[in-house]
Amino acid sequence: MAAAAAAAQQLVPCMYIFGDSLVDNGNNNNLLSLARANYRPYGVDFSGGPPGRFTNGLTVVDMLADMLGFRPPLIPAYAAAQPAAAQPSDLARGLNFASGAAGIRSETGNNLGRHYPLSEQVEHFKAAVRQMGPNASSPERLGRCIFYVGMGSNDYLNNYFMPNYYTTAQSYDPDAYAADLLQEYSRQLAALHALGARKFAVAGVGEIGCIPYELARINTQQGGGGGSGTAPPATAGTGVSISLGGVGLTIGGGGGAPANASMSSSRTGGVQRRDQQRDRDLQQGAAGDGSGSTGGRSFPGRRSSSSTPSGRGGRWWPARRRTGSRVWNDEINSAIAIYNRGLLAMVKRFNRGQKLPGSTFVFLDTVRAGRALVAGAAAHGFTVLDRGCCGVGRNNGQITCLPMQQPCDDRSKYVFWDAFHPTEAANRIYAAMAFNSTSAADAYPINIRQLAAI
Questions:
Q1: From the candidates 115, 418, 437, 442, which is the catalytic residue?
Q2: pLDDT at 322 (0 to 100)
Q3: Quick one: which of 53, 153, 164, 361 has the most CB atoms within 10 Å?
Q4: How confident is the model at residue 354 (pLDDT cuts 50, 70, 90)?
Q5: Where are the domains of the chain?
């Protein structure tokens, strides 16, 4: 009787989640990867210890699931629920397939080790559908479930803007790259549609040019403001060796964004950054004017290379923009704006019945949500907008939380938990906007509550 009452309170029969570290809840825990968060202080405010979430407590999708009426236990990670011992009813209630470092492109995030790209997450869902049985996996039932998908951040942070590790910047200008991402994204959404998905909540990419990691790089390389602390010296060498559960892993000198890893405590002094070679390239580019052409359109910050036409593959320098005391990487934000416009256009096409008949898509504008949070920071109790609560270096953004590191005392005052990810307090606001906002500028064309009611 109690179980039936709880189920009756749910607005949808199930919820399935696809994405990256913003919503991963432990799928990377047992992988040989730097993109892991199954150690303290991650999960410091989460009951039961560090579960693998890349924040201090709950993620956006945890809160959305609660708003949809799902009661404990939370929607489980596929890696924990998929063994043969799992009951079909457990899989039918919902699963989280998200994976830290994952992208739309299969190679995205490889600089950080093993993870599950979007295509593999979709394959995992297909396997789960087979395990559920015919009743739970019927198109009629799955068509009433919420499918949350948030992808794309790593395709920029751990791919396109890592020119010493990936070649995408040599092959695509920002417009062409966004088009390529969206074409593959469309294919994977179509695969979910073919399996029965009909109600999609698709999150755009936030302004990652404003996260503590990018602010720290701007401050270090260009002497800009917006942070405190001293920059650690660059060290010699072409790679960083890190221990993951007793297994050694070396990331090459062209490596990318610092990720969560079980690092030796000796690393906390004289911090060795994983993007040493890229920083030297950026310093070489400082002598240029920081402008260039990309595919026939103006794009700030890219410099032309004599060996590559149209500025593709040339050295790049983070183009700064300042509003008041805030400074951010405008080149990354400009590229993301192109992607988000294309994603919104794709959502509109799908909602007109093109390609995926019978489906309803909601576009969540994470850029607008982030700006709204900053504009109303004081009202929400936030006092620190540009530093991670836990981390190392400028803005606590040059390396993410080290094992057993002491985080800030009052997490509710911080927008960012670490160099990349929001705190639980910020996630709560983002979830409330996605679920309840009556503005189509936040959730287009309807919010998630309305999507569930269809």
A1: 418
A2: 54
A3: 53
A4: confident
A5: 15-217+328-367+423-453
